[in-house]
Amino acid sequence: MLRALLLTLSVVAIAHAELCKPDAQNAFKVRISIKTALGDNAYAWDANEEYLFKAMVAFAMRRYSSKSTTQISNVLLCNVTDRVSFWFVVTDSSKNVTTVPGSEVEAAIRMYRNRINSAFLLNDKTLQFLKITSTLSPPVEPSTPVWLIVFGVVLCLIVAGIVFLIVSGIQKHKKKNKESTERDNLEEKVEVTLENGIPCEALDLKAGHINGVFAADDERFTSL
């Protein structure tokens, strides 16, 4: 009985070794950069982390196919290196000697990529499935609607234009009044009158003005 059990386990191990190997059919290579992602807080990759990885892949397969047949034992890892990289396959739970088509595994990984990354505190760049393209993160929506931002910008431009027109109008009005006042003052200082087409100085009515002709006549006569 024991011999039969050992023989069965040996056959299963050989079969699994044939299923999980580099570049095998439906196999995927994984490369993990824990030190790059976490720095001094990096954790060691050990059997517990491998178990968690198998559990996350099994979780993705169960959720993707809506079936509860995939178990952790169906996820096989091989060629694990210290840097950390390895290959994995998912075996068919009904037969356990064949692998699940790679397209199904890829679709499941892509659908739950963020959950897998979060389990290891990594992202698409530090937890790489080399044959599986990275999923695009949903676009980040701004807290303020775009139309409101555009409306605010346009409103600010309109207000700025109105303020500019008001300020420039006030400045022009002040400049015009100043020029008018200066011109009036200048005209008062140089005010002259025209008499018979000849410019004459304005008469000082209080002080009077002596006519030079009569003054000359008065000097020719002596006083009585």
Automatic annotation (TrEMBL):
Keywords: Cell membrane, Glycoprotein, Membrane, Phosphoprotein, Signal, Transmembrane, Transmembrane helix. Residues 24-224 form the Collectrin-like domain. Residues 1-17 form the signal peptide. The chain crosses the membrane at residues 146-170. GO terms for biological process: positive regulation of amino acid transport. It comes from the Eukaryota. PROSITE patterns: COLLECTRIN_LIKE. Pfam families: Collectrin (PF16959). InterPro entries: Collectrin, Collectrin_dom. GO terms for cellular component: extracellular exosome; plasma membrane. It is found in: Cell membrane. It is a single-pass type I membrane protein. PANTHER family: COLLECTRIN (PTHR46884). This is TMM27 protein. The gene is Tmem27.
